[in-house]
Design a protein that fits this description.
Bound molecules: zinc ion
Helix content: 25-40%
Strand order of the largest sheet: 1-2-3-4-5-6-7
CATH superfamily: Ribonuclease Z/Hydroxyacylglutathione hydrolase-like
Strand content: 15-25%
Number of helices: 8
Distance between the termini: 41 Å
Structural class: alpha/beta
CATH topology: Metallo-beta-lactamase, Chain A
CATH architecture: 4-Layer Sandwich
Largest sheet: 7 strands, mixed
Order of helices and strands: EEEEHEHHEHHHEEEEEHEH
Radius of gyration: 17 Å
CATH class: Alpha Beta
Number of domains: 1
């Protein structure tokens, strides 16, 4: 399934099983022939996303890049699978996590030893499974023009060191990765490279954004009126997160 959120931004819902699988967003006006995919999903969860793209009339030749909100396994687990089908696509990620991908350091991907051993027993992952060429390292602050859609990159460390949000000012729309979700939930802050104080500062930044549409990478999306929900979420979590 693929559905329009606003003109130029489409949504392929993730399919959680007992492990989460991230949503994928498609940025770009169809006629631009310049499409970007935001995140990929869990291992072995690539093929239905390819089917969703094709059923939505998207020519895979028009997909030019993957932009990763961060590099946890539920977001990049099927990156290799998708790159096998879309080999010309570039990989863009925040520089803090790009360095890990380039040297094949999978500590952020797995998050902790328990997840790592669980994944290694269930999936065919080897030492090189999470080594990728990174074509563009983002820093935050970039204003990108992606297939006719303007996107600001916001560095949101906390859930992981290189987490980013993608903000479309025209629609007051935020793709928030795993930093904040609908209905009062925030990203966990106990995994490798996470930092609760940084997460608090990132959330406080988001609570000041002009927001209407919230597109997190898990669970439901908020199609309008997201700002008071985000403000409430941040108000509730800030004292718990400390400094
Ligand atoms: Zn995550
Ligand atoms: Zn996630």
């Amino acid at each position: 399934m693929i559905e329009n959120v606003v003109e130029g931004i489409r949504w392929i819902p993730g399919r959680d099983k007992f492990l989460p699988d991230s949503h994928v967003y498609v940025i770009g006006e169809p006629e631009s022939h310049d499409l970007s995919l935001v995140d990929c999903g869990l291992m072995e969860m690539g093929s239905y996303k390819i089917e969703a793209l094709e059923s939505g009339g998207i020519d895979l030749n028009h997909v030019h890049r993957f932009i990763l909100t961060h590099t946890h396994m539920d977001h990049i687990g099927c990156l290799a699978e998708l790159l096998a089908v879309i080999p010309h696509a570039e990989v863009w990620v925040h520089e803090a996590e790009g360095a890990f991908l380039e040297r094949g350091d999978s500590r952020i991907v797995f998050g902790n030893k328990m997840f790592e051993s669980m994944i290694r027993t269930q999936y065919a992952v080897d030492e090189n499974s999470f080594t990728f060429k990174v074509h563009r390292k983002l820093t935050g602050g970039e204003i990108l023009m992606l297939g006719g859609v303007e996107i600001e990159v916001i560095h949101l460390p906390g859930h992981s060191c290189g987490s980013i949000g993608l903000y479309n000012r025209a629609n007051k729309l935020l793709m928030s990765g795993d930093t904040i979700y609908a209905d009062g939930a925030i990203g966990r802050y106990d995994l490798y490279s996470a930092d609760s104080g940084e997460l608090k500062r990132s959330l406080e930044f988001l609570s000041k954004l002009d927001l209407d549409i919230l597109l997190p990478c898990h669970n439901r999306i908020v199609r309008s009126g997201a700002k008071p929900m985000v403000e409430n979420t941040v108000r509730q979590w800030s004292p718990i997160l400390g400094d």
